[in-house]
Specification:
globular; 14 strands; Immunoglobulin-like; about 15% helix; alpha+beta; two-stranded antiparallel sheet; 3 helices
Amino acid sequence: MFKHKSVVPVLLVPAAFLALAAGGDDEKEGEEVELDEAEVFIEWNSTDGDFGIQFFWDGDGWDRMKVENSEGKTCLQVRARDNLQEQGLTEGFFESVEPDPDELSMEEFLERFPEGEYEFEGKTLEGEELEGETEFTHVIPSAPTNLFPAEGGVVNAAAPLIVSCDAVTEDLEGNPLEPEIYELVVENTDDETFVFTIVLPGDVANPSATVPPEFLEPGGNYKLEVIVQEESHNRSITETSFSTL
């Protein structure tokens, strides 16, 4: 009897401890932390004719993340391992292959990635649920046109350069659209460096910017890239190459 009585309390203590520990884990796993940003969007390059899908998220430190499409299927899954798992991650960015349009048509691409709500589900380093969601659409801005400098143009490197394009007012289906932003980028293609970038609000009537002459070199080769982004972050890009005297 003595032995029996002395054993029972010893068994009960760890059992109670385990029950409390399990309850604490369940409570932690039930907590949810929202991502600061969660985006899924299309990038279409009208100059090259290619297109792809991109994923971006940012938030508290995490060691695993998955993205489910609007049909509830996992389309992306990431997990940190070893020392990176201990350190944790805060951002994630993935860009798909951009196939030649002869290999994959726009219609086939849009069918492959259906519209609707895409959900992000991950784990923080503390074991909490990390979640976010975004509405993925097939609304793509029409290509920006009438870029200046025009393709093959030559400009004076000693004078200020006004880069510009016509305002985009429709999507690819011809529906009215007001862009969220325009981004104008000038790149030196000789050494592949970005020399000038400006972001403009989408409601400007004449998207343009002045590049100071200090940003250009005589006898150089450059590229102007105009990016038009709509509210769901789908974007269209048009490029033109020019040189300087």
